[in-house]
Amino acid sequence: MINKKTGWAVILAGAAIFAPISAYADIVIKVGFAVGGGYDVNARLMANHLGRFLPEAGSIYVENVDGAGSLRLAKMMLAKEPADGTVIGSISSWFPVGATFDPALVGLDFSQLSWIGGIGTTQERLCAVSSSLGIADISDFAEQTFQLGATTSGTTDVITRLVQNTLHADFEIVRGFSGTAPVRAAIIRGELDGYCSLRVRDLEKVFEPGTMTPILQASYRPNLDLPYPLLRDLVEAPEDIEIVDFILSHELFQYSFALPPGTPEDILTVYRQAFDAMVQDPEFLAEAAKLRMQPSPITGAELEDHLDRIQKTPLEVLARAGAMLD
């Protein structure tokens, strides 16, 4: 059946998977960060496999549109990109949460996006520093002066500020990086001392053994098998634990994908069904394992529900969250 408005064919194929044709149009996954970071790697993983569940689509490729921690792409997705299913966006997981109180995001309504789903991750987010600093525990980490790298805005910047303010730490935050890959490169060159977006796999794949020392976990879904303390357990005021959890809940949007506002419902359905099938597919999971990734998929409907809850957060909670990141 051809939808005359969108030009997409809706075809039932196998296990309730629909396929768009749209004249065999190519599909671009735009990523708001530089090549080599987590968002880029996950987008390329998706580009490698999604087409098998959209058999009438053309090529699927990735384009990096980095700038301001993906804020540039976020604004493009909300206002400029075509709503015909040919452009998918991957932006900072922080934005749906941050838009409720962060001045840099005021006026951006991420509920307008059509959320396809998120690959997610069960991997922890660690704050880690160069072992050459001799920092061994939280006390040293909070009291010594050194430099941690962060993006201009977005997740890494927010987490680093949250850690700094929670611990009343003396470290300096060096912002302006287009993603975590440039941050890691700067650490390897000796220009930075660490960052707060390290995954355990980075200790094996990116850095030389023994050169980085993890200090704490700043994760919404931490790995309790690791010996590093949790940020929420280091909060001085018990009432602030709620705020830390609220801020960290942005991880539910980790490596998520969305279509522009106004995307027809049948196109969104096509993508959601294809995505949900992809993240359960053995070939997809096998490549993820080779990349030492641990997907924790979330559906587009679940992302919508979480965003709805975020937007109903009481004003006093939002005010305290803003103060904690000030």
From TrEMBL:
<protein>
    <recommendedName>
        <fullName>Tripartite-type tricarboxylate transporter, receptor component TctC</fullName>
    </recommendedName>
</protein>
<dbReference type="InterPro" id="IPR042100">
    <property type="entry name" value="Bug_dom1"/>
</dbReference>
<comment type="similarity">
    <text>Belongs to the UPF0065 (bug) family.</text>
</comment>
<dbReference type="InterPro" id="IPR005064">
    <property type="entry name" value="BUG"/>
</dbReference>
